[in-house]
């Protein structure tokens, strides 16, 4: 698993992505939540996906080829305030088109900042995923920035909010790209999907 990871291509729209002939998983979430860092942590490669202290770093659909057999995808973040509405709308369309039309996409990991109470923007996004039948798992990031307890509490709050509207809850993971927390859990989860 993750023996080999290579950057393949960045695409401006889903129909320009590589042929959908491989198992594929994608990472999404608010700008700056730690998507690119998580991909680097999982693959054990410091600079595979470009990270930045400034939000809005990732702007295209980035495909990485893993172990010559499947794709991992880094997506641009949603909810980046410091850009024009026109830009935001274009990004939303690009991401939504990809999520709805990419037939080889198995699951989307939605990243959420573990330091925050449940945020409207994240809840709205997963509601949209549910309405569009896109399977997802939730990853709570940056757990090292506070006590593990606090991260777990925020995760529990998120579960409570979701239980009001969802009959079934998705998988939840608590992670840190700094310490590697959650790496094994996510890796085995992806492995189990690959085997099915
Ligand atoms: P965009 O591509 O702009 O949407 O951002 P992104 O979600 O890919 O975030 P990125 O991985 O670039 O990380 C944003 C910032 O958060 C960087 O300064 C990272 O070093 C920091 N960061 C990400 N994950 C963690 C983490 O688990 N712990 C800590 N302490 N910092 C993190
Ligand atoms: Mg990024």
From TrEMBL:
Cofactors (names): Mg(2+)
Coiled coil: none
Signal peptide positions on this chain: none
Keywords per UniProt: Cell cycle, Cell division, GTP-binding, Magnesium, Metal-binding, Nucleotide-binding, Septation
Phosphoprotein listed as a keyword: no
SUPFAM superfamilies, per the entry: P-loop containing nucleoside triphosphate hydrolases
EngB-type G domain sequence ranges: 21-196
rRNA processing keyword on record: no
Entry similarity comment: Belongs to the TRAFAC class TrmE-Era-EngA-EngB-Septin-like GTPase superfamily. EngB GTPase family.
Protein name from the UniProt record: Probable GTP-binding protein EngB
Natural source organism: Roseivirga thermotolerans
């Amino acid at each position: 698993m993750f023996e080999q990871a290579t950057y393949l291509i960045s695409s401006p729209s889903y129909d320009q992505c590589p042929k959908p002939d491989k198992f594929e998983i994608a990472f999404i979430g608010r700008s700056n939540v730690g998507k690119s860092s998580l991909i680097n942590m999982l693959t054990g490669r410091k600079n595979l996906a470009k990270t930045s202290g400034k939000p809005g770093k990732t702007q295209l659909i980035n495909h990485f080829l893993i172990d010559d057999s499947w794709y991992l995808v880094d997506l641009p973040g949603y909810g980046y305030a410091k850009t024009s509405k026109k830009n935001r709308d274009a990004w939303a369309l690009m991401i939504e088109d990809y999520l709805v039309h990419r037939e080889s996409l198995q699951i989307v990991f939605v990243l959420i900042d573990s330091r925050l109470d449940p945020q409207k923007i994240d809840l709205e996004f997963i509601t949209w995923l549910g309405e569009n039948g896109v399977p997802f798992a939730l990853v709570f990031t940056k757990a090292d920035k506070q006590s593990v307890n606090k991260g777990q509490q925020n995760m529990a709050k998120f579960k409570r909010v979701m239980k009001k509207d969802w009959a079934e809850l998705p998988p939840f993971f608590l992670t840190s790209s700094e310490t590697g927390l959650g790496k094994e859990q996510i890796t085995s989860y992806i492995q189990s999907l690959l085997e099915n």
